[in-house]
Amino acid sequence: MSIVAFRITRFQFARDRVIGDSQVRADDANVAALELVSDSGQVGLGFIQTLFSPLPDQTEIERVFATEVWPGLEGQKAIALVHRVNRPRGGNQRATSLPFHEALQVALWDLAAKEVGLPLHTLLGSRRNRVKAYASGLDFHLSDEDYQALFAHAAAIGYRAFKIKVGHADFERDLHRLTLLKQVVPAGSEVMIDANEGWSSKEALMKLEAIRRAGHDLLWVEDPILRHDYEGLRTLRHAAPWTQINSGEYLDLQGKRLLLEAHGTDILNVHGQVSDVMRIGWLAADMGIPVSLGNTFLEVGVHMAVALPEVEWLEYSFQNFDHLVDEPVEIRDGYAYAPDRPGHGLVLSETARRDWSRPKLLPRDQLGAAPANPRLDLTK
Question: DSSP for 306-325?
Answer without folding.
Answer: HHSTTEEEEEE---S-GGGB
